[in-house]
Amino acid sequence: MTAIVEVEHLKKTYDSGFEALKGIDLTIEQGEILALLGPNGAGKTTLISAVCGITAPTDGKVRVGGHDIQDDWRAARKLIGLVPQEINLEPFELVMNTVRFSRGLFGRPRNDALIEKILRDLSLWDKKDSRINALSGGMKRRVLIAKALSHEPRVLFLDEPTAGVDVELRRDMWRIVETLRADGVTIILTTHYIEEAEAIADRIGIISGGQLLLVEEKAALMKRLAKKELRIDLQSPVDHIPETLSAFDLRRADDGRALIYTYDTTGERTGITRLLGAVQAAGLTLADIRTSQSSLEEIFVDIVKDGGK
């Protein structure tokens, strides 16, 4: 695949001395969907703003479609669509004019058929002659999405696009995302809804404290989710794991009242049957057994907590 967004050692330090980005390196392939996860203040919006040319980086390079965002900003910016977190629209303008004007800002010729299609896809066509200030918050967010799509970008940034919106808009949004993906559009998504990242992303990146801790194929990350834990509660606590159980790579609970076994659910054999037989053969009496599985959210929290280690 061909890289369409290339970020090299990107830094952003504000006048106050705060380092919002600390040397980000990231390559995004044409046509992929990348989900960026991170806590509030992690640097997600700053990174997007820098790539889109809204925020000037302190150091580093960014290229979009081979165009440097500073030296060749006009060509780079034409390739980018952005749906920001904040709703900032001209309150007294009509919906149709707002979207049409946005297309013109990028030097694209008038195309009312395309604008109509975008508005219909976003359930906005019946609002085309309404003023922005007459719309609900959800409808205004739909207008932001329409504006971002109006000039047919090849890279689309969605900064928390479904935060606080209704289920219908979320469904419309992901339907459009699938259509854009089929057309080869690259999509970078920031979200607090980890299940959305899990559902639509090709790769998942985790950013915290201005550092990119991890960028990983979703399939590889989901393989981690295949790890489950079997907790074997014992009738009596043990001071140590019997030598006869050493082949099972068990962990002893702090109070000695349980043995914990991690296994891969995708494997042909989990080893559980053999383990339970070995536990009884070691003279240990079972009180209870239970299984648990890590969620993507737990993995995310652990990675942020451990700084990507």
From TrEMBL:
UniProt KW keywords: ATP-binding, Nucleotide-binding, Transport
UniProt KW ATP-binding keyword: yes
Pfam families in UniProt: ABC_tran
Keyword Cell membrane among UniProt keywords: no
Cited CDD domains: ABC_DR_subfamily_A
Gene3D superfamilies, A to Z: P-loop containing nucleotide triphosphate hydrolases
GO molecular function: ATP binding; ATP hydrolysis activity
Domain of life (superkingdom): Bacteria
Boundaries of every ABC transporter domain copy: 5-234
Family matches, as PROSITE patterns: ABC_TRANSPORTER_1, ABC_TRANSPORTER_2
SMART domains: AAA
Protein name: ABC-2 type transport system ATP-binding protein
Species annotation: Silicimonas algicola
